[in-house]
Design a protein that fits this description.
With 234 residues, the protein is an alpha+beta fold.
Protein backbone atom coordinates (compact mmCIF):
# COMPACT_ATOMS: atom_id res chain seq x y z
CA UNK A 1 0.00 0.00 0.00
CA UNK A 2 1.14 3.45 -0.72
CA UNK A 3 0.42 6.18 1.70
CA UNK A 4 2.65 9.09 0.91
CA UNK A 5 1.96 12.11 3.01
CA UNK A 6 4.18 15.11 3.49
CA UNK A 7 3.66 16.55 6.95
CA UNK A 8 4.87 19.98 7.91
CA UNK A 9 4.38 21.53 11.32
CA UNK A 10 3.01 25.02 11.01
CA UNK A 11 4.62 27.67 13.13
CA UNK A 12 2.57 28.69 16.14
CA UNK A 13 0.98 32.01 15.45
CA UNK A 14 0.99 35.31 17.29
CA UNK A 15 -0.66 34.27 20.55
CA UNK A 16 2.11 31.94 21.68
CA UNK A 17 2.08 28.20 22.23
CA UNK A 18 -1.15 26.32 22.71
CA UNK A 19 -0.75 22.71 23.89
CA UNK A 20 -4.05 21.70 22.28
CA UNK A 21 -3.00 22.80 18.82
CA UNK A 22 -1.97 20.08 16.38
CA UNK A 23 -0.03 20.13 13.12
CA UNK A 24 -1.90 20.42 9.85
CA UNK A 25 -0.88 18.95 6.55
CA UNK A 26 0.79 21.19 4.00
CA UNK A 27 -0.30 20.77 0.41
CA UNK A 28 1.31 21.41 -2.96
CA UNK A 29 -1.08 22.55 -5.64
CA UNK A 30 -0.83 20.48 -8.81
CA UNK A 31 -2.13 21.11 -12.31
CA UNK A 32 -3.97 19.19 -14.98
CA UNK A 33 -1.75 17.91 -17.75
CA UNK A 34 -2.72 18.18 -21.39
CA UNK A 35 -4.51 14.82 -21.38
CA UNK A 36 -6.96 15.85 -18.65
CA UNK A 37 -5.23 13.97 -15.85
CA UNK A 38 -4.22 15.45 -12.52
CA UNK A 39 -0.81 14.39 -11.19
CA UNK A 40 -1.01 13.81 -7.43
CA UNK A 41 1.23 16.13 -5.42
CA UNK A 42 2.77 15.56 -1.96
CA UNK A 43 0.06 15.60 0.70
CA UNK A 44 -2.94 15.57 -1.67
CA UNK A 45 -6.05 13.65 -0.74
CA UNK A 46 -8.91 12.53 -2.95
CA UNK A 47 -11.19 14.92 -1.07
CA UNK A 48 -8.99 18.00 -1.61
CA UNK A 49 -8.61 17.25 -5.31
CA UNK A 50 -12.35 16.74 -5.74
CA UNK A 51 -13.05 19.98 -3.84
CA UNK A 52 -10.61 21.96 -5.98
CA UNK A 53 -12.27 20.83 -9.20
CA UNK A 54 -15.85 21.00 -7.96
CA UNK A 55 -16.39 17.24 -8.18
CA UNK A 56 -18.19 14.73 -6.02
CA UNK A 57 -15.45 12.64 -4.43
CA UNK A 58 -17.50 9.50 -5.17
CA UNK A 59 -17.47 10.36 -8.88
CA UNK A 60 -13.74 11.06 -8.85
CA UNK A 61 -13.10 7.75 -7.11
CA UNK A 62 -15.27 5.84 -9.59
CA UNK A 63 -13.54 7.49 -12.54
CA UNK A 64 -10.23 6.15 -11.28
CA UNK A 65 -11.28 2.75 -9.92
CA UNK A 66 -10.65 3.72 -6.29
CA UNK A 67 -12.44 2.30 -3.28
CA UNK A 68 -12.60 3.53 0.29
CA UNK A 69 -10.31 4.59 1.98
CA UNK A 70 -9.28 6.14 -1.38
CA UNK A 71 -5.52 5.80 -0.98
CA UNK A 72 -3.51 7.75 -3.56
CA UNK A 73 0.23 8.26 -3.98
CA UNK A 74 2.47 11.07 -5.19
CA UNK A 75 2.83 10.87 -8.96
CA UNK A 76 -0.41 8.97 -9.52
CA UNK A 77 -2.49 10.29 -12.41
CA UNK A 78 -6.19 10.85 -11.74
CA UNK A 79 -8.67 11.36 -14.53
CA UNK A 80 -10.58 14.56 -13.78
CA UNK A 81 -14.04 13.98 -15.23
CA UNK A 82 -17.51 13.08 -14.03
CA UNK A 83 -18.28 9.39 -13.61
CA UNK A 84 -21.72 7.77 -14.10
CA UNK A 85 -24.07 8.36 -11.18
CA UNK A 86 -24.40 5.42 -8.76
CA UNK A 87 -27.41 3.15 -8.95
CA UNK A 88 -30.14 3.62 -6.30
CA UNK A 89 -29.38 2.05 -2.94
CA UNK A 90 -29.89 -1.69 -2.98
CA UNK A 91 -29.23 -2.13 -6.70
CA UNK A 92 -26.03 -3.13 -8.47
CA UNK A 93 -22.38 -3.00 -7.50
CA UNK A 94 -22.32 0.73 -6.81
CA UNK A 95 -24.72 0.21 -3.92
CA UNK A 96 -22.25 -2.27 -2.43
CA UNK A 97 -19.41 0.19 -2.93
CA UNK A 98 -21.36 2.86 -1.05
CA UNK A 99 -21.91 0.45 1.84
CA UNK A 100 -18.17 -0.20 1.98
CA UNK A 101 -17.54 3.55 2.06
CA UNK A 102 -19.93 4.03 4.98
CA UNK A 103 -18.40 1.26 7.06
CA UNK A 104 -14.84 2.37 6.32
CA UNK A 105 -15.47 6.01 7.23
CA UNK A 106 -17.56 5.24 10.29
CA UNK A 107 -20.06 7.88 9.17
CA UNK A 108 -23.77 7.36 8.57
CA UNK A 109 -25.33 7.47 5.12
CA UNK A 110 -27.33 10.48 6.33
CA UNK A 111 -26.48 12.81 9.21
CA UNK A 112 -29.81 14.14 10.50
CA UNK A 113 -28.30 16.65 12.93
CA UNK A 114 -29.38 20.25 12.49
CA UNK A 115 -26.67 22.56 11.17
CA UNK A 116 -24.96 25.02 13.51
CA UNK A 117 -23.46 28.42 12.74
CA UNK A 118 -19.68 27.93 12.43
CA UNK A 119 -18.79 31.34 13.87
CA UNK A 120 -20.27 34.39 15.51
CA UNK A 121 -20.27 37.68 13.65
CA UNK A 122 -22.25 39.15 10.79
CA UNK A 123 -22.39 37.72 7.28
CA UNK A 124 -20.43 40.11 5.09
CA UNK A 125 -20.82 38.32 1.76
CA UNK A 126 -23.57 35.99 0.61
CA UNK A 127 -23.74 32.92 -1.60
CA UNK A 128 -24.11 33.42 -5.34
CA UNK A 129 -24.55 30.51 -7.72
CA UNK A 130 -24.65 32.68 -10.84
CA UNK A 131 -23.14 35.88 -12.15
CA UNK A 132 -20.36 36.88 -9.79
CA UNK A 133 -19.97 33.40 -8.30
CA UNK A 134 -19.40 33.07 -4.58
CA UNK A 135 -19.56 29.46 -3.42
CA UNK A 136 -20.33 30.08 0.25
CA UNK A 137 -20.78 32.84 2.80
CA UNK A 138 -18.25 35.04 4.59
CA UNK A 139 -18.32 35.97 8.27
CA UNK A 140 -16.72 39.09 9.71
CA UNK A 141 -15.21 38.72 13.15
CA UNK A 142 -11.99 39.00 15.12
CA UNK A 143 -8.65 37.40 14.49
CA UNK A 144 -8.32 34.32 16.67
CA UNK A 145 -12.02 33.87 17.50
CA UNK A 146 -13.32 30.28 17.53
CA UNK A 147 -14.42 28.46 14.40
CA UNK A 148 -16.57 25.41 15.18
CA UNK A 149 -17.81 22.38 13.25
CA UNK A 150 -21.26 23.05 11.81
CA UNK A 151 -22.13 19.35 12.17
CA UNK A 152 -20.50 16.23 13.53
CA UNK A 153 -18.24 14.40 11.13
CA UNK A 154 -14.70 13.49 10.15
CA UNK A 155 -11.90 15.81 9.07
CA UNK A 156 -10.84 14.84 5.55
CA UNK A 157 -8.55 17.78 4.80
CA UNK A 158 -6.51 20.29 6.79
CA UNK A 159 -3.92 22.31 4.93
CA UNK A 160 -2.91 25.21 2.71
CA UNK A 161 -2.59 23.58 -0.71
CA UNK A 162 -5.77 25.09 -2.17
CA UNK A 163 -4.29 28.57 -2.30
CA UNK A 164 -7.56 30.39 -2.86
CA UNK A 165 -8.76 29.11 0.55
CA UNK A 166 -5.76 29.82 2.77
CA UNK A 167 -5.59 27.43 5.72
CA UNK A 168 -8.59 25.22 4.97
CA UNK A 169 -10.40 22.55 6.98
CA UNK A 170 -12.92 20.23 5.29
CA UNK A 171 -15.28 18.05 7.34
CA UNK A 172 -17.21 15.10 5.90
CA UNK A 173 -20.58 14.69 7.63
CA UNK A 174 -22.03 11.67 5.83
CA UNK A 175 -21.82 10.06 2.40
CA UNK A 176 -23.18 13.19 0.68
CA UNK A 177 -22.36 16.34 2.66
CA UNK A 178 -19.07 18.19 3.24
CA UNK A 179 -18.44 21.57 4.84
CA UNK A 180 -15.38 23.79 4.53
CA UNK A 181 -13.85 26.50 6.73
CA UNK A 182 -11.32 28.76 5.02
CA UNK A 183 -8.75 31.49 5.84
CA UNK A 184 -8.12 30.15 9.33
CA UNK A 185 -5.31 31.50 11.47
CA UNK A 186 -4.62 28.07 12.96
CA UNK A 187 -6.22 24.63 13.10
CA UNK A 188 -6.98 22.40 16.08
CA UNK A 189 -7.64 19.26 14.04
CA UNK A 190 -5.87 17.00 11.57
CA UNK A 191 -7.06 14.62 8.90
CA UNK A 192 -8.84 11.59 10.30
CA UNK A 193 -10.06 13.33 13.46
CA UNK A 194 -13.72 12.88 14.33
CA UNK A 195 -15.40 16.08 15.50
CA UNK A 196 -18.67 16.89 17.22
CA UNK A 197 -21.07 19.63 16.20
CA UNK A 198 -19.98 22.83 17.96
CA UNK A 199 -16.44 21.59 18.62
CA UNK A 200 -13.76 24.19 17.96
CA UNK A 201 -11.73 23.17 14.93
CA UNK A 202 -9.85 26.38 14.14
CA UNK A 203 -9.29 30.07 14.88
CA UNK A 204 -10.49 32.77 12.51
CA UNK A 205 -7.80 34.32 10.36
CA UNK A 206 -7.78 36.74 7.45
CA UNK A 207 -7.57 36.78 3.68
CA UNK A 208 -4.30 38.23 2.42
CA UNK A 209 -3.63 39.92 5.75
CA UNK A 210 -6.80 41.99 5.67
CA UNK A 211 -9.87 42.01 7.90
CA UNK A 212 -10.72 38.91 9.93
CA UNK A 213 -12.89 36.56 7.90
CA UNK A 214 -14.23 33.03 7.80
CA UNK A 215 -15.32 31.68 4.42
CA UNK A 216 -17.80 28.83 4.89
CA UNK A 217 -19.11 26.40 2.27
CA UNK A 218 -21.46 23.41 2.22
CA UNK A 219 -21.42 20.94 -0.67
CA UNK A 220 -23.75 18.04 -1.42
CA UNK A 221 -22.49 15.44 -3.89
CA UNK A 222 -19.82 17.94 -4.93
CA UNK A 223 -22.29 20.75 -5.68
CA UNK A 224 -22.28 24.01 -3.73
CA UNK A 225 -25.34 24.97 -1.67
CA UNK A 226 -26.42 28.23 -0.08
CA UNK A 227 -25.49 27.73 3.60
CA UNK A 228 -28.16 30.19 4.72
CA UNK A 229 -30.84 27.78 3.50
CA UNK A 230 -29.51 25.11 5.85
CA UNK A 231 -28.35 27.06 8.90
CA UNK A 232 -30.92 27.88 11.61
CA UNK A 233 -32.34 31.37 11.91
CA UNK A 234 -30.48 33.57 14.36
Amino acid sequence: MRVLVLVAVLGLVSCGHNPDKVPVVERSEGRLNNSGYYVVQPGDSLYSIAWNYGLDYHALARSNGLRSPYTIGVGDKLRIRAAPAPAPAGGGSTGSAAAVSRSASGLPATNTEAWKWPASGSVSRFYSGSGNLHKGIDFQGKIGQPVVAAKSGKVVYAGRGLKAYGLLVIVKHDTRYLSAYAYNQSAYVKEGDKVKKGQQIANMGSKNGGQAILHFEIRRDGKTLDPLKLLPRR
